[in-house]
Design a protein that fits this description.
Elements (H helix, E strand, L loop, with lengths): L16 H5 L18 H13 L11 H6 L14
């Protein structure tokens, strides 16, 4: 899957907290706030869910408990990669 990281996306004026918090001469380098377009499969799944029109509470996926319970760090693993 190919991603486009070469085009700047103007986020000022889009209700982006990080871009309306600072003056224009500051470039906020937050890690968790993306400044690139999401991958098309993610956009497609979100559209499919939104088209359903019902936004109530759902149950957790069956594999969620296993993923949460997996050990994420031990002296024998790389803490940052989880492996």
């Amino acid at each position: 899957m190919k991603y486009d990281f070469d085009h700047d996306i103007e986020r000022r004026g889009t209700d982006s907290y990080k871009w309306h918090t600072y003056e224009e001469d500051i470039i906020p380098l937050w890690v968790a706030d993306m400044d690139f377009v999401s991958a098309q499969p993610i956009v497609d799944v979100l559209r499919q869910r939104a088209d359903h029109g019902v936004f109530g509470y759902g149950g957790p996926p069956g594999e969620l408990a296993c993923v949460i319970q997996e050990p994420r760090y031990s002296p024998h693993t790389n803490r940052h990669s989880g492996s």
